TrEMBL record:
The lineage of its organism: Bacteria, Pseudomonadati, Acidobacteriota, Holophagae, Thermotomaculales. This is Neutral metalloproteinase. The keyword Protease applies. It is an enzyme of class 3 (hydrolase). It comes from the Bacteria. Its cofactor is Zn(2+). GO terms for molecular function: metal ion binding; metalloendopeptidase activity. GO terms for biological process: proteolysis.
Amino acid sequence: MKKFVYFVFTFVFIFSTLGFSKGHYFNYKANGKNVKAMLPLEVEFSQKRILKTGKKTHIRFSQTYHGIEVFGGELIKHYNGKNLESVNGIIFENINVGTVPVLSNYDATKIVVQDLNNPEYKIRNTKLVIFPKNDVYYLAYKVDSFKFDSNMIYFVDAETGTILFKYENVKEGKPSWVGGGSSTTLTDVTGTGIGVNGETYSDLHVVFDGSSYQMINRTRGAEIKTYKAVGRSLPGNIVTDDDNYWTDSAAVCAHKYLEDVYDFYYTLYGRKSYDDMDSAMIATVHYGTNYVNAYWNGQQMVFGDGDGVQATYLSGALDVVAHELSHAVTDYTSDLIYSNESGALNEAFSDIMGTCVEFYFQPEGFGLLKADYWMGEDIWYPNEPFGDALRYLDDPTKAGDPCHYDQRYTGTQDNGGVHINSTIVSHWFYLIAHGGTNPYSGIKVDGMGLDKARDLVFNAFTNYMPADADFSVARQVTLQTAAEMYGENSTEYNIVQTGWDAVGVY
């Protein structure tokens, strides 16, 4: 299966390294050409999602084979008004596999349940897909299983029952079952709360039900609700208070910061909540015991309290809250597959957006409640051997993470290095935004400024990035985006290119 990139008449060879497949990345300007004329005749597509940003419309299509989805295959059309400007994506060619399964849906489910060996898991969905692995195509069942803190995705050979691949799809910050509402009349009020680092918020939007105050914010298009965990069930119980002076600092920060993240995406990009449909934004705090993590489980955000040694309440850092909500944005845009390099791109986007939200609301500097290029520093204790932050975009090596592709992790832990290798990409962002020199390659990059870099990354990752992208594809996608936003061979285009050179991604 050969791989090549179309640039109208210029061909560049790039290989996707999802770990279980090799697709063909393409990108070309439409120039009035018929899309099918530029692609192999046998390739089929089915529309799956429409994204609109201003005058631009981006339509994503899943590749299909005799009506069955080809996992990782995708085409994205980009319109300016009614005019088709460009098309990019990843396709798989020369598929020749039977489409009638030997095993039933039920058979595949039983195989997954046996492998999970945990009664807490439930099966959410099972469907047939074409699954590429090691240059071979398989008819497989994609089985979606979940429990309160896990979302395991399986691919089961529909002929033999072999488990071809599996991965964890819960997006963690580190290596709809929302409870029913009340018929009581609610009044919107403003309260005062104390944050994790002792800060005071006098504009906490909550509701009053006549007897107590509840952490429900109805002042935005989407409701923002903050819950307190009860055991391992989610979301738990809505956080309440008797006098509207809130001292549950973990809940205060989660509630306030979710409002900030909503405002960031809406003000800058017109995005209404994570799905652009103003769905409720749900957070649960006080999850687990000594739990040093936070995650997005596909339906809500969950924050642990830390262990008091490595970290404190995870919701106490604006960039951490923004990181988790940005995973939700990814789920409803590029839907980057959470494994290997595409998963690292998923994590990098969340770190980048988390950093940008921090710079949008907090003054630049070092210390508590200041904007910088460190992740989670407001809740991470300066206690060796843990360091002062979870990750460092300016110098990932401070936490032992790679800053260059030569240093990348190639093992199977961490879903193939989704957190570890994310710093290669987030460091690229630091270089193109702030400017600097990569400590491994010695290549110097002149920054274009945070605002330009932020807008470029948001546009590239939400509108142009295929779900099966690897780092080389990300380079091509961001260059394509820079060319469309600022012009090919513009200063910004050249900065993006030099930035990728600096981190060793070609």
